[in-house]
């Protein structure tokens, strides 16, 4: 029998480490190992506790409800005076509601929102998007509204981008007049809104480290009144916040102007959404919320923003889709450009991608004015607010000195 004596032994065999360990019995866990395990447990408890607290703290927004609207003709803002005119030879009689007597119910998993980019110089809404998030199916649909969209209002320039400024000009806060005007074409009131300062856009893009984007055209533009200088070449590149803002504001180089810009804005936002959905940007959520609270006018609380942020992160990039209001993008009334809504296509889009109720929006629920060079005006309410003569006459700006119209 060999006798072990430290590192000395009497035999020729030198025991292996495993043989020595076997003779010592089970290993005891070191104090350092125990401490590490405790630290890991504490960290896990803190992490899970923080997640549980965050989920408990976040909450969905309160919703205005009210069901689908039943519009009767009212002059939203009679600042220009003038009596309403009956629609000239309407293609159909003012619609009757097939759901009369059966109030619509909100889908508890669907929330609607409005995002507005405000032109600080004119107080007009330079960019406008309405959307719906489905928290059950984890989808988001966003519809861009062209700024020249024709709306049935009494003042002379009857464009959707005047709703905000017209409300301010008559003592309102801007957003209420805008929401009322959008209710006219949607058939229901939007849940949440966000009026975005340009600084917010810049800060958000910088917070995700910039965005890789393929700029579709060479962008060159200079507007000294807005101190806006754009010189960005076409092609794939990494954009910081300031550069990204210039890309989404640029419109003069597209054949279809605002419609071309809308396409670029949608493509860019898809790139932003894809980048924000990466794992690396999840820790930036508090930063996003801070930026939102500082630079965005909204009816959402921080806990509401947290709710939507988590719902957004549950979506896949392919489940975030963008659309554009269907209409005649080349319409003109008295020399001023308009986008005249295609009512049937628009109502189909509303019911497919935006409507949060269990009943379809019909013509009976909207106050939409359309125009055609061949058939004239048609309104779902049967009236043109302010009268046909209330439209701003832009042809005077192109008249020659002798009073005759120029070729332009």
TrEMBL record:
The chain crosses the membrane at residues 35-57. Residues 125-277 form the Cell envelope-related transcriptional attenuator domain. InterPro entries: LytR/CpsA/Psr_CW_biosynth, LytR_CpsA_psr. It comes from the Bacteria. Residues 1-30, 64-102 are annotated as: Disordered. Keywords: Membrane, Transmembrane, Transmembrane helix. Residues 7-17 have a biased composition (Polar residues). NCBIfam families: lytR_cpsA_psr. Belongs to the LytR/CpsA/Psr (LCP) family. This is LCP family protein. It comes from Candidatus Scatomorpha pullistercoris.
